[in-house]
Design brief:
disordered N terminus; alpha/beta; 118 residues
């Protein structure tokens, strides 16, 4: 299965699923706004299937703030993941927000440290 750059990971006690904004062939012809819209539609479809407890939205794009708010209004737990320069509004909308660039930086430092101690 190929996962496109913009994705939502559905997670919770009821399972994990990667949801794509479009199929790989269609993605070549889809502009970013269309991809964003498809992503939101996928999220709402998952929400109303009542098969999950929460969402992990991997983006730094503040355009998804309203989606996060809507998911939380429906009682979903929302984890956001993205860059440190993400919108403060988007970060605050999520139950939790993980800074991926900081995680990567820490892993690089640990790897470098491990190599120098050998």
């Amino acid at each position: 299965m190929e996962i496109l750059p913009v994705q939502i990971l559905q997670t919770g006690t009821k399972g994990i699923e990667a949801c794509h904004c479009a199929n790989p062939a269609a993605a070549l012809f889809v502009r970013q706004n269309a991809s964003d819209i498809m992503l939101v539609i996928d999220a709402m479809d998952i929400l109303y299937q009542d098969k999950t407890d929460g969402f992990c939205i991997v983006t730094s794009d503040s355009d998804f703030t309203r989606l996060v708010n809507r998911l939380r209004e429906e009682g979903m737990f929302v984890i956001g993941m993205g860059k440190s320069d993400a919108s403060k509004t988007f970060i605050a909308a999520c139950n939790e927000y993980k800074f991926l660039d900081k995680i990567v930086d820490e892993e690089v430092k640990e790897t470098s440290k491990a190599r120098t101690t050998k």
